[in-house]
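Quick log. Single chain, no ligands specified.
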Amino acid sequence: MKQNYDLRFPQMPMRDDVGAITEFAGMGGFDEGFRMAGIPTFASVEAWDAANDVRRDNQEGEIIQGYIGTEQGMLHPDDLVERYARASQGRPVHYHASPPCQAFTMAQRKVGPAAKTPEQIHEDKLAAFPMIGNALYTAEQMMKHPDINLNSWSLEEAPAVAQFIKENPHLLDKYVKKKKIDQEEKKLLTGCLHKETSVQKLQNIS
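-> predicted structure:
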């Protein structure tokens, strides 16, 4: 079985001129996909101890442990961006964030004994938005940072998140106001959220 798998999904030669940065990284599924494509992870962030242990055994990039947020004791996005600048050293990078987004997935139960009402699903989406907002803010700050070459970025369940923002623009307006992002930067962020990004963008860098 492994031989067949290796034939279908061969390991690409590892590169050192591009890389990925991941947040809410879990046990590193996204990082593993990049590794198979020959792209190393420069840095990854996760709060779960056991998941960090798995990534330490499987990747060489910086493992950052903690909860992302702006409250005391959390990993502030601004501080993380500076760490990403040091880790990437000007090389092209893909940023990926996988904040808890069950409410945005097709797996959300809408029928049966455990079904949730549309109102409950909406509340779940609102509860997830602060973490999504931090990811959007981080992407925006990476775009602006003079020492970060952000080649592309992606967000878990991005199409559903983009649709939710479109239906509830006040959420992004509140977030933008809080983070002091001007209107041009807001357009750039929402435009990138709707645009598909791909590992091929990094693979095609010569």
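The longest helix spans residues 118-144.
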